[in-house]
Each structure stands twice: as structure tokens, then as C-alpha cells.
Design a protein that fits this description.
2 copies of one chain form a homodimer.
Chain A: H1 2-37, H2 40-51, H3 59-75, E1 78-90, E2 96-101, E3 105-108, E4 111-113, E5 125-132, H4 135-146, E6 150-153, H5 164-171, H6 173-176, H7 178-183, E7 189-193, E8 219-222, H8 224-236, E9 241-245, E10 249-263, E11 268-278, H9 288-308, E12 314-321, H10 329-340, E13 344-350, E14 358-364, H11 367-374, H12 377-380, E15 406-412, H13 417-420, H14 433-453
Parallel strand pairs in A: 5-6, 6-7, 7-8, 11-12, 11-13, 13-15
Antiparallel strand pairs in A: 1-10, 2-3, 2-9, 4-8, 5-9, 10-12, 14-15
Helix pairs in contact in A: 1-9, 1-14, 2-9, 3-9, 9-14
């Protein structure tokens, strides 16, 4: 009996090793195809340099839909659009800001309106400034300390967070919730230190959310050098004034689209693996790293399957999600339609952390499914993709979890991401061709393995 | 007995875990200190932007010696210079090159003389071109196919090498040995495709070695776009001519120095851990990634020990090696003096692969010593430093192996290194502060562990 058992074990083991070996060979072919013949870098060149920044509702967003629809058609069996209504916020004229001190003089500083902010009055706002580092400090100041003033949130990134997304997570409440928190106590506006490790002159815009019951106040992000200057001047002259002028506005919702392309599975076409990035970006840069990279990587996956003649057993669908940055309407619409059409998503993967060298994949799955995925870990090691410890998917796919889908996120090196995130320097030249391609390769390998074996 | 054995095991295990835990805490302090208060980035700013490219024997190399001597004095117990004679090659006027075709016309192309090359005659050289991809092809062509011509080496980087140093290793024979190999068959000059994955207009210089018994011919590197153009034009017009003009020359050897700073060990001062980078760089850029990064990281290690008040049990010595790029005289001199003075180097670590995010440390050691080092692996994991599989040290420290030293190399992400290596774009803006600091932190942690426990 023991002998048979051992034989069976041997058979199972060699079978496992044999398939792992075959999978390794296929994954090597995938990596080679993308590194030798990848198109994602040139697609990103177009998306960044010809289309440019593409905030939801803008003509550039419409151009990005058209462009990715056309390239999707060259690699997918089926390509289609999913209409959805999106918010349409416009920045207007270039913002102006300065610090005015009777002691130190006047100094212009670089700001960007936060996405969704209301405008200042035409003449701008000028008021005294109160600097805080968190909402507790704000609360302690109360109405007496805040009323009629501009609240300046100046808590910096925690440099000791090795993954910069950790630092972002610990600081971003100031940007997102700061305006309404300050308005509670009668603030007339807010200025937030830019969400970045870098000390430079680039302000970083980003989303914020007004609370319904609280008056809306104009809010902007100031560059880190500007924030340091304002803080220093404030110590010297607590009565100085900050002036800013913005004429951004929210227009009526616009019609836009998710762009979808798919390759039908040969054995289990009803089981869907969705991969994607978000097609919209902030308007101030070109959205190259955030998230043109994730979009073109997702289309590259389909291209690699086609180029290698791999017919996936399960359906692979690439989606360019619209409006992640200031509404998430594309992701919501996708999940809504998936539910309505009773689609079975077995896995959803998003790349929205930049096209930097991949270091791992984050996974949000039940323990049995996670275990299955982790058995493939060794296949990824030769490509420097070693870390599967994080838990998480991506903003556009998270809603699919409730529909039973495993969520996966590409986890690239994070050190440079917040140098460019939501700022004017998020341009094509910040993307390295090989880093982008290696990310696409890691994603394709995982999609291939899931399409072969299911979850 | 079993009980006692288990108790002993438990004791040993908890002792081990306790020390690992303490070491993890110290290493966290090291990382935090460098990420919060690191000076290496601002030192590199000076070395790149104020000193600039610093080829051995140049005034800039002398300025770099002076600058690093001064900063070393602020962090080391003892600072001194090690004199050595270095080659002194100068590039001269900006090189000129063009392709001249009776069919397609004339086109200027970007080249750099290879370091050590002789000049062309004053009027330049103009000759027909023969394109080859390896020395076998050259041999097959023989004298009949090569005599009087310019040999154009055009084997590109293998894009499928995940670590770009692998691609470099497979291509660099064309640059290093190409001139003499071609001259064997009567070539009048050589042009080599730049050693890079990038397709752009930047030629990459680098070292070459003439063989003694073979006539010297002028040799240059052409940008990858230039190489692609030359190859395309050649297919159309095999009789086209390549013209190039260079007036580089080798002057008499100059006196230069390694810069050395050390912190004496408290318990085993005679056991030395040496860390370093090379202070010289090519002249065409600012030597920021190659290897200003490795130099400032090495000094940062001493700074971190001082700032944290850690008194190392073994002696830690940082060395700015001179002349790695075109002679290696500094490294040789260091090893020669170490032997002469009967110094005991237990470990030598070099950072000469760029200041990118660290991914691991390469180790060249006997299996028992390697095993000891690998026991510390988990301490590095939270910092994304996971790969200890490579074998190797660095050009300036390899000679210490014969003296019994373990060799260690910082192994950073390699994707962008050859975009900048030996070219005019190797400037300070290509270095990310956090990536540089994380590399320094990983090195400091390893130095700390070796200084505590020996090898």
C-alpha cells in the first residue's frame, strides 16, 4: 500500500513539476515576446504625447477612448465600448498664489486646484493662515483659531515607509477630507502640502470630497518647497496672508466610455479574467505613469497572446476604465454590467501603481485560492517578481470582489511613483521601456496561468 | 536527555531569535536614519554638478579627491590618501562622424572615442565599412574582406536578459577587444554599437584594450540610432563610406589617490570591513550613477554609524577607489598595500551598479561564510532586499579575494543603468534620492551585521 502511495505521490509530483516546467517555458516565451516585440511603450508614447492629460469629460479623454479602441481592435477578438456618465470638472486658468508678509515681502508659490474644488471669487481669496498637521490639531484650534482663516495642512510623507504607498496612505486624508474638516470650523479655504516625497516646485493635484452638509471652500495643493517656505515664513510672521485665485468649475456630467477588448476562452469562455488600467488621468501632466502605463500594459497582454498564438482556455478581457481619478464611474459601471449580465469573473487584475520594474503581485483572495496562486511563485522569480505578500487589487476592480472575483494588483517598485503622481511631470520620458514591459510580462504570465488552470 | 536537548535547542533558538530581533531593530534604526537624515544625495549633487566628469588624471578627478577627503573627515575617525599613478587619456575636441553615401547622401552621426583610443589623422579617416556581429564573422571575412576598411560591430544587447548586466556581459567584447581583433585583418578603424538597451542619440564611451603585438587603430562608439541608420544605409549602399575624426591622446601617467576613511573597531580593530565605490568616471557625463552613487553611499555608511552612535566591533573603512574606468590602478594599489601591511580584510563590499533601488547583495564567499550571511536574509526582506543568489563583488575589490576577504556587491535594480552608463546623460537628475538612500541603508545593515558577528 505504502509503495502504491509513494508511486502515486511520485506520479503527482512529477506531473506537477512537468507542468511547472512547461509553464516556465511558456512564461519565458511570453517575457521574450514582450521584451523583443512589445508595443506598449510606443502606444504610451502616443497616449502621453499626442493625446496628453485626459481628465474625465475632456476632449482628450474622448480622444483616448478613440485611440485605445483602435489599438484594441488590432489585438482583440471583440472590441466594444461601455457608456457611462462622468463628472466634468475643469481647471480653468492657471492658478495664482502668493505669500504676503509685512516682514518678509511677497513670494509667489506654485499651486494646483484640487480636483472638484470650487473656484475662489474672481478677485481671489486673501486670509491669514493657520498651519496644522492633522485633524486633531484642527479640532483643538476650533472655531476660535480657524474662523475666517486659510487652513494649511502640512504633514509630510513619512520617509521611513519603505513602500511609498504607505506614506501616501498616511498623508492623503489631509487632501481628501481636509477642505470640509476645515470648513466645519469656519475656514475660508485650504492649502495642502503636495502628496510626495520629493522636495521640489511641482504641486500635485488630486481628488477631494466635500461633505454635503458643510459649506464648500476652495482648496489647492502647494508644492513641497512652497509648503516649506510658507511654514518658515509663518514662524517668523504668524500674521502673514496667503492669497490664491482659481477659477475651476464643475460642468454638467458628460457621456464617456470604458473601452473593452476580449479574447474568448476556448474551454471555459464563461469564466472571465479581466485586466485593466484607468484611461483618464489628471489634466496637469500627461498621465504617463498614472495610468497610461496600466492601460497599455493591459492591451499588451492581449497582443502577446495573439502574437504567440496562445489560445486561452478562459476568456481574457482588457478594460480601459474611465474616471478613476475623480469619480470611479467607469469601474462602477463595469461591475454593474457584470452583475446585470450574470458574468462570472474569476479574477480581476489592475495595474495602477506605475510602469516601474515589477516586484510582485498583490492578491486579495480566499486562502485556498491564494494558496493556489502562490504555488506559481517560482515561475515568477527569474523575472525579479518575488513579493506576493500584499493584499489588494485596484480602485477600478475592487467592486468585483463581491461577485466572487479574486483581485490582483501589479506591485511595481514604488520609489519614484510619487515624484510624478498627479503632477505636471508625469510625462512619457519618466517611463522606462523595459520596466514597463517587464510589468506587462508579469501580468501576462499570471493571466496565462489563471487561464490555463482556473482558480 | 531528550528533554535537556530540547531545552538547549529552545535556548539556542530563542537566543538566535532574540539577537535577530535586536538586529532587526538596529537595522530599522539604520534605515530610518538614512531615509530621514541621509547626506549622500546632497554629496552626490556636489560631486556631479560642481565637480562633474572626473576621468583619472583630470583636474576634476583631483577636485573629487579633495571634496571626498573633506566630507570623509566629517564622519571618519581617520582619513588619509593612498597615492597611485594613473593613466591620463584626454578626449580632445568633440568627435565628428558622418556616413557618406553616393545613393542616400551625407548624415552626421553621434560618436564618442573609446577611452584609450589613438587619434585619427588630423584630416580624419574615411573608408568603406564592413558590418559584423561577432569575431567569428570577422574571421570568416578575413583580410580579403576587412583590409583597408572600418569594421562596424553591431551586435545589440539581448533584450531577453532580465538583468541588463547579463546583456552587457554578452556584448562588451566588441568594445573591449574589437579594435585589435579588427586590426589583425588590416582594418583602419572600428565603430562599435553603444552598449545599451536604449535606442537613442547618445553614444556610450568605455574602456578598450589594444593588444601589444597588433597595430593600434582609432576606435569609437556610435549611438544606437546611428548604428541602426548605418546598418540600414549599408544594406542599400554597401560601398558607402564612414568618416570620423578624433584627436584624443594618452599623456604621461599622473599622480592621483584613493581616499580612505575609517572607524576603528572596538573589539577586533584588526579585522577590516572595506566598503567603496570608484571616484573616477568617464568624462562625457557627470558620473552620477557610475559611480558617484557608490562613493557617496560608502561615506553615508560611516555617517550613519556616527549619527546613531554605533561603535562597530570591527574596523569599517570606506574607500573612494581611483581609476576603475580605464586602468583599475586604485583598486590594485589598495590590495597591494593591504598585503604589504598584512591587513586582515574579512569583507569587502562595492557599490558600482548604480544608485537604484536595491534588490539584493551578491556574495562571493566560501560556502560556510555564505551560509552565515544568508541567515541574516530575513532582516533585509522588509526593505525589498531579497536576492542574495548572485556571485560577485566589484572590480576594485576583487583582488582582495586572494587575501581571504569575502566579496559583496550591492545589487540594485538594473533596468535603467545602461540608459546612462558611460554617456553624457549620466547626470545627477537621473538619481532618485530614496533609491540611493535605500541602497546605502542595505549596505550599512550588512556592514553592521558583519561588524557585530564577524565572518
Amino acid at each position: 500500500m505504502k509503495k502504491y502511495f509513494l508511486s502515486a505521490c511520485y506520479f503527482l509530483l512529477t506531473g506537477f513539476l512537468f507542468s511547472q516546467n512547461n509553464d516556465s517555458i511558456t512564461c519565458r516565451k511570453i517575457a521574450n515576446e514582450i521584451l523583443n516585440n512589445g508595443k506598449c511603450y510606443s502606444w504610451l508614447d502616443y497616449l502621453s504625447n499626442k493625446v496628453g492629460g485626459r481628465l474625465a469629460g475632456s476632449p482628450q479623454a474622448a480622444a483616448a477612448v478613440e485611440y485605445t479602441y483602435q489599438i484594441m481592435k488590432t489585438v482583440a477578438d471583440t472590441t466594444y465600448l461601455q457608456p457611462c456618465m462622468v463628472p466634468h470638472w475643469v481647471r480653468g486658468d492657471k492658478e495664482v498664489a502668493k505669500i504676503i508678509s509685512s516682514k518678509t515681502g511677497e513670494q509667489k508659490v506654485p499651486i494646483f486646484a484640487l480636483g472638484g474644488s470650487i473656484a475662489t471669487p474672481d478677485a481671489g481669496i486673501s486670509a491669514e493662515v493657520v498651519e496644522v498637521h492633522n485633524f486633531d490639531e484642527l479640532k483643538k484650534l476650533g472655531k476660535a483659531g480657524v474662523q475666517g482663516k486659510i487652513v494649511f495642512y502640512n504633514r509630510p510623507f513619512d520617509e521611513t515607509e519603505i513602500n511609498t504607498f504607505g506614506a501616501y496612505g498616511k498623508a492623503v486624508d489631509q487632501r481628501w477630507a481636509g477642505p470640509s474638516e476645515a470648513a466645519k470650523y469656519g475656514a475660508v479655504g485650504t492649502v495642502v502640502r503636495s502628496m510626495t516625497n520629493a522636495i521640489d516646485d511641482n504641486p500635485h493635484t488630486g481628488g477631494m470630497g466635500y461633505k454635503d452638509s458643510i459649506p464648500k471652500v476652495p482648496c489647492c495643493a502647494i508644492s513641497t518647497k512652497g509648503a516649506n517656505l510658507l511654514s518658515t515664513w509663518l514662524k517668523n510672521d504668524p500674521k502673514l496672508k496667503f492669497y490664491f485665485k482659481m477659477n475651476c468649475q464643475t460642468l454638467p456630467d458628460e457621456k464617456s466610455y470604458n473601452v473593452v477588448g476580449e479574447i474568448k476562452g476556448t474551454e471555459h469562455p464563461e469564466e472571465i479574467i479581466v485586466i485593466g488600467g484607468h484611461l483618464d488621468s489628471w489634466d496637469v501632466g500627461h498621465g504617463a505613469q498614472d495610468d497610461g502605463a496600466g492601460c497599455v500594459q493591459s492591451i499588451e497582454i492581449l497582443r502577446a497572446f495573439k502574437a504567440l498564438g496562445i489560445k486561452p482556455k478562459r476568456t481574457i478581457r482588457a478594460v480601459m476604465f474611465m474616471n478613476e481619478e475623480n469619480g470611479g464611474r467607469g469601474g462602477s459601471k463595469y461591475a454593474e454590467l457584470a452583475k446585470l449580465n450574470k458574468e462570472k469573473h474569476i479574477a480581476a487584475m489592475e495595474s495602477d501603481a506605475g510602469g516601474f520594474t515589477p516586484r510582485g503581485l498583490s492578491i486579495d483572495a480566499t486562502s485556498d485560492k491564494k494558496e493556489k496562486i502562490l504555488k506559481w511563485k517560482n515561475i515568477f522569480m527569474p523575472y525579479g517578481v518575488y513579493d506576493f505578500s500584499a493584499n489588494g487589487g485596484g480602485a477600478d476592480i475592487d467592486a468585483l470582489k463581491d461577485q466572487g472575483s479574486v483581485l490582483i494588483g501589479l506591485y511595481p517598485d514604488s520609489q519614484r511613483y510619487f515624484d510624478y503622481h498627479h503632477t505636471a511631470t508625469d510625462t512619457f520620458d519618466k517611463v522606462n521601456k523595459r520596466e514597463l514591459e517587464l510589468g506587462a510580462a508579469a501580468m501576462t504570465m499570471m493571466v496565462y496561468l489563471i487561464s490555463e488552470y482556473g482558480l
